[in-house]
Amino acid sequence: MDNPLSKTVLVIDDDRDIREVAKASLELVGGFTVLTAESGSRGLLVAQEAKPDAIILDLMMPEMDGQETLAQLKRDPGTACIPVIMLTAKVRAQKQDLVHRGNAAGILLKPFDPMLLSRQVCEILGWISSATEEGAGDSATR
Amino acid sequence: MTQQRGEEEVRATLEKVWLESRPQALERVATLERLAEAIRLGAPDQESREIALAAAHRLSGALGVFGFGEASCCAAEIESLLAGGLPPDGATFAQLVARLRTLLEEAGAQNTAQMEKRNT
């Protein structure tokens, strides 16, 4: 079982509000070290440089969207092994399909509950036992 | 840091970010209101629709994160209408946008009251 306190998570989202809230939530509740990027292209650079333990990636972004960013992360041998959790509001009907097609580790629905975000991330990535968690909300693991 | 302390700090961060973001959220509602007016006049152009769709999408995500669930659902409904491709029904669209404006103003008042309560 991995200890989430030693983990670094990269949040890629073009919405500043989401980045700030996710960062605060993951740092203050989850104890992670959090990096952020405001675009897919910037996220790729940060991922290549910092090699985070996981990436939370917004699906709908202008220019390079989440699917394309995910594809590039998986093509690069330096980042291919980093688990990526897709963050999106548009998954209820296509949740599993997106996970399987895109090689994502899981899905988080937006809006997320800031108090539960860390739990959901841990649950998806197996960093803590999901059996001890309650009410982890809308998440889907691969 | 205890879990409770962490959650308190997250709440404080949420308040801070919301206060900073509220003017932009209201501007996004104004974008939707302009589209509602354009639909009423029968002249919504594609660019306005796309800008409004992006505004509704962001409102839907952010408002829910800040704890304004009803406003988030309302914005999601607007987003869904706009994402449909065809021009949305004008009356329904306008009603939803007006509802979103009301919910956002209530959210602002509620937030201010909570902050004042904490500071007394």
Distance between the termini of chain B: 26 Å
Q: pLDDT below 50 for ≥5 consecutive residues: which ranges of chain B?
A: none
Order of helices and strands of chain A: EHEHEHEHEHE
Strand content of chain A: 15-25%
Number of helices of chain B: 4
Q: Biggest interface and which pair forms it?
A: A-B, 19 and 24 residues
For this entry, what is the oligomeric state of its chains? heterodimer
Into which percentage range does the β-strand content of chain B fall?
Answer: under 5%
Overall domain count of chain B: 1
Number of strands of chain B: 0
> CATH top level of chain B?
Mainly Alpha
Strand order of the largest sheet of chain A: 2-1-3-4-5-6
Tell me the CATH architecture of chain B: Up-down Bundle
Key words describing this protein structure:
heterodimer, A: 142 residues, alpha/beta, six-stranded mixed sheet, B: 120 residues, mainly alpha, Four Helix Bundle (Hemerythrin (Met), subunit A)
Topology (elements, then pairings):
The complex is a heterodimer of chains A (142) and B (120).
Chain A: E1 8-12, H1 16-29, E2 33-37, H2 40-50, E3 54-58, H3 66-75, E4 84-88, H4 95-102, E5 106-109, H5 117-125, E6 139-141
Parallel strand pairs in A: 1-2, 1-3, 3-4, 4-5
Antiparallel strand pairs in A: 5-6
Helix pairs in contact in A: 2-3
Chain B: H1 3-40, H2 46-65, H3 69-83, H4 90-119
Helix pairs in contact in B: 1-2, 1-4, 2-3, 3-4
